[in-house]
Amino acid sequence: TNWEKPVVGIASDQGFSMIYLSKYLMNREVGFTLRVLEILRDFNLNYEHMPSGIDDLSIILRARQLTPELEEELLRKIAYEIDPDELRITHDLSLVVVVGEGMKHRVGSMAESTAALARKNINLEMINQGSSEVSIMFGIHKDREQEAIRSLYYTFFD
Asked: What confidence tens digit (pLDDT) does each residue in 109-126 have?
């Protein structure tokens, strides 16, 4: 692996929705995430990614799995069983991913990536970087996908 080039690729895909829920001290509730996953299972829904914080959780899933009726029923069940402080769904998301094993050996890849998107005034709906530091994922509105890819490309490859 070439550590001189920490980023080796940029990929994207669209057609995602994100369910966002927050609940104060959710991290202290034993089984909180399990209960959310059981609801997804009850609706026969797969999730793609599930970034979380101390008080919030985002569930990224393929939008094609949701009908308006199913979405309404799903949100109602989450609201009833989980009782979050905030619950919302965002549609029309694209996931843009910066990839490279060298990022774990170089400080600043996240900063460079977010700066590239900020220069183009691209709002970040979601950020996820696993502890392996091999990829950084950004959830953005689908209308900004190509612009985001170009900006990241110029930052890392031009």
From this structure: 999 999 999 999 999 999
**56 contacts: CB under 8 Å, gap ≥ 6:** 20, 21, 22, 23, 26
Taking a C-beta distance cutoff of 8 angstroms, is the pair 94, 139 a contact? yes
Q: In the CATH scheme, what is the homologous superfamily, with its name and number, of domain 17-90?
A: VC0802-like (3.30.2130.10)
Residue written as token pair 């994100």 = 18
Q: What's the whole-model pTM score?
A: 0.90
Name the residue with higher pLDDT: 101 or 85. Answer: 85
| 134: DSSP letter | S
The superfamily CATH assigns to domain 9-13+93-157 is ACT domain (3.30.70.260)
